[in-house]
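Archive entry. Fields below.
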Amino acid sequence: MTLSRREFLHLMGMAGAAGLLPGSLRASSQRPTDLYEIPRFGNVCLMHMTDCHAQLNPVYFREPNVNLGVGGALGKAPHLVGNAFLKHFGVTPDSSAAHAFSYLNYDAAAKTYGRVGGFAHLASLVKRLRAERGDGNSLLLDGGDTWQGSGTAYWTRGKDMVEACNLLGVDIMTGHWEFTYQDREVIENIGEFKGEFIAQNVKVTEEALFDYKFSDFDGFNEDAGLAFKPYTMRTVNGVRVAVIGQAFPYTPIANPQRFIPDWTFGIQDERMQAVVDQVRSNEKPDLVVVLSHNGMDVDLKMAEQVTGIDVIFGGHTHDGMPAPTVVENSSGKTLVTNAGSNGKFLGVMDLDVRNGKLQGFQYRLVPIFSNLLKADPAMQAYIDQVRAPYKTQLEEPLALAEETLYRRGNFNGTFDQVICDALNKVNDAQISLSPGFRWGTTVIPGQTITMENVMDQTCITYPETYRREMSGADIKAILEDVGDNLFNPDPYFQQGGDMVRVGGLDYVCDPNQSFGKRISDMTLDDGTKIEANKKYMVAGWATVGSQSPGRPIWDVVADYLRDQKQVKINKLNTPKLVGMKGNPGLEDYPAA
Amino acid sequence: MNNLRRLIIKGSMAASTLGVAVSAGLLMPTTVLAAWPAKAFGAKDMTEGLANLLGSSEMMESGDISIKAPEIAENGAVVPITVTATMAGVESITIAAPNNPAPLVASFDLMGGAHGYASTRIKMGKSGDVIAVVKAGGKLYTAKKGVKVTIGGCGG
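PREDICTED_STRUCTURE:
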């Protein structure tokens, strides 16, 4: 039922003609009049947002200058940054698209093009596309990481976002950080969500099935043991579209299992194949798509392993990819997209589906420039109202940013350094550790850092800090473990986060090495060698195993910022890299 | 075959140098079975353990065995493992984790006509392969799958 080779070549021809293939992006970025005029194509429009991390208002977000690909991923999307990225996708340098997709010339370009994202601006675009495609001819998919990432999402336990998504008209979603609330809150939020929540890879554990506390929940299937509905069928402009959900496979490993003790995840590609086969034979779909929170590298491998999927709409790794990657497998080809993060983009895929199959498509990852899209009044009113009770708290000025403060990248961003320095200073530690999340908004030079910025970088449901002694061997073990989650050449062993951020610690990293051999030459800031048997005082936050005893991280960082008044990074604790020279996932890196 | 054998021997050598006391598995029916093969399950060397239990450690890699296991374990203390063997005449299915201090974890003897299927949970102290050894028609067949045991989170 999937595309044969010849059919796909035909499809690619169509796509080229329709202005999709990478080279043609040049033309699209030069369109002077209306960036948001996206010509109709085909008969089905699938809009895709992902990883907005609860950013209701427009933000700044700097794309990475370090996104290394190793093994088979070397030099391929998504492991491209800066000029290599622009060249690969044919994006015109110094254009608005170049600013949206790369870190290049970030400070100046951010001032020129302004803030990105925002639900009110996104709502305007979604409404416009819905109207242009015609009533009932489109779907809006949300890949998850929607209920977490802002102060208001944290304080309302994700509910501000559930309602915002209802207003936006999200049809179908899956999840990851959604599962970092208590399980009963997850179930409650899904109940309030007007769309459908789907995930084929979340089961109720065998023990919990004996007396399952959510046995009344709509999506629960006792026979299959699935906690949520695995897929849904929608008719779009007369076309039968199957959407299969894939939640983040490593949620109970990367995030606390204690909040969701009854659910077990995993990639489950065998089950995915079974679901695709079952959908293909029982539901007679014209199109089969997966709404995935695997992360792009895992999606690319899954597209090789599992047959019968037309498109995987991906997220998690926050890769803003202007064009899909076409993956060949034993029975056809699958398109794999990734739609960036923080509300910065809307993926728009127009598909021509006829005679029971995909004949052609046109894809654009559309940047949401808040200066170019009007705010939808109803959504803006909602946002203002939901923020009102927290406004004073959010707007508290803490310090002045003298340089761009960002997180995204394989190693310490400047905002991470602020967090690590704060942990060391406030908690009187030698070394600090901070998680390599990929969310967290950017502050540009001259901007006042507010409590909201700090919340955007830190607010999780397990924010407690710790201060404890660790041996040099323990610290190395942590670095090696996280390094393997990032650089294991097999994507199925990657968790999709970046390297743990460090303060007060320098090291050498050789990503091409095997587990346990990537990290060497660990020293304190003053050059003193770290010894395996010696103890060091370490501060950190976001412990997954059990709750830490200290204050929430945002209070620690706020204390530090109030004290600093002006923020300029003296030293960025990024590792010296080995074997990465010429890697197109690395630009402007001082210690390659 | 020789390659695999070498690999298995190499793997068990590595395991035998471990000094950590981690119990081999959940199923240790010492009190249930009179003839508990203590020598096999107590062996620190997998090849030795297998030879002791199955009478030989000569085995062939087989595509007829599939191991279902998580790529990354959600909890190293209870890693769900399912082994399915589709060849004819399966007599037993043995599961081993060469990186465990005592690599042999479980062995299921199947009566004639039973499906070649065994499902259990095993404890894994660290990342490594899970190895299935299937005895069928008097011969030994094997397959393996890597399972990663991580400290979790983002290390912070």
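CURATOR_NOTE: The two ends of chain A are 47 Å apart (CA to CA).
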